[in-house]
């Protein structure tokens, strides 16, 4: 496989933000190893949210890790971060080296099959600060990632490969929504890690 063949500086967005797709950033064997250890060692829990006043428990599983036990609020529920595992620290180091940014927390998502996805949203919570950089590592089943401009409706689509890195920064969260569409075609699990910086 030809690693690092993608131009990571190319911007996928036409305006109002920066999204960079690096493609796979590790060997396939290494990505397989991380997928397996993440599936086993992470404390996966069903996500809870309060949407339009209704208490929802998602099929998708989540976990949150960081430098310390940050509390973090989104979708009207508050979570507390666990302290980094060895593998998460290794992956944090890798994305910090590649992006030149630093991160103090990571939100993990486990999509068991294509029947699970994530609805349109922006990662614009107050605790993340304005126009913060988010680095997203993907493992397992290849899935489609979509971005949509909040006012023009422009759409950008990127397939996220096993062991790949995607970066969202600049004004992306202010101006664009993103989602992971559901699909009947994918029967295998995917794990996604979004490295973030919590301020406060
Ligand atoms: O699974 C993905 O690629 C997207 C995850 C995401 O948008 C998030 O955790 O905020
Ligand atoms: Fe997101």
UniProtKB/TrEMBL annotation:
**All copies of domain Fe2OG dioxygenase, residue ranges:** 102-199
Query: Which Pfam families would you find in this protein's record?
Result: 2OG-FeII_Oxy_2
Looking at the record's lineage, which domain of life comes first?
A: Bacteria
Q: Name one GO biological process term.
A: DNA alkylation repair
**What are the entry keywords?**
Dioxygenase, DNA damage, DNA repair, Iron, Magnesium, Metal-binding, Oxidoreductase
Question: What does the record give as cofactor?
Answer: Fe(2+)
GO molecular function terms listed in the Swiss-Prot or TrEMBL record: catalytic activity, acting on DNA; demethylase activity; dioxygenase activity; hydrolase activity; metal ion binding; oxidoreductase activity, acting on paired donors, with incorporation or reduction of molecular oxygen
**Annotated EC:** 1.14.11.-
Q: Is the keyword DNA repair in the record?
A: yes
Q: Does the keyword Magnesium apply?
A: yes
The record ties this protein, via Gene3D superfamilies, to: Alpha-ketoglutarate-dependent dioxygenase AlkB-like
This chain's protein is named DNA-N1-methyladenine dioxygenase
Record the organism. Cytophaga hutchinsonii (strain ATCC 33406 / DSM 1761 / CIP 103989 / NBRC 15051 / NCIMB 9469 / D465)
State the taxonomy lineage.
Bacteria, Pseudomonadati, Bacteroidota, Cytophagia, Cytophagales
């Amino acid at each position: 496989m030809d690693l690092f063949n993608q131009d990571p500086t190319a911007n996928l967005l036409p305006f109002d933000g920066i999204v960079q797709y690096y493609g796979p950033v590790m060997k396939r064997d290494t990505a397989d190893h991380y997928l397996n250890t993440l599936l086993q060692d992470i404390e996966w829990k069903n996500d809870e949210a309060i949407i339009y006043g209704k208490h929802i428990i998602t099929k998708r599983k989540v976990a949150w890790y960081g430098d310390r036990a940050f509390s973090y609020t989104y979708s009207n529920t508050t979570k507390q971060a666990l302290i980094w595992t060895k593998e998460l620290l290794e992956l944090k180091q890798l994305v910090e080296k590649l992006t030149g940014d630093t991160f103090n927390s990571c939100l993990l998502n486990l999509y068991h099959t294509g029947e699970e996805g994530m609805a349109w949203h922006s990662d614009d919570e107050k605790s993340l600060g304005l126009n913060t950089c988010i680095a997203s590592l993907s493992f397992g089943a290849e899935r489609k990632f979509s971005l949509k401009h909040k006012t023009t409706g422009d759409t950008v689509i990127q397939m996220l490969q096993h062991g790949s890195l995607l970066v969202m920064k600049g004004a992306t969260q202010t101006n664009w929504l993103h989602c992971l569409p559901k699909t009947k075609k994918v029967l295998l699990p995917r794990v996604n890690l979004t490295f973030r910086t919590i301020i406060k």
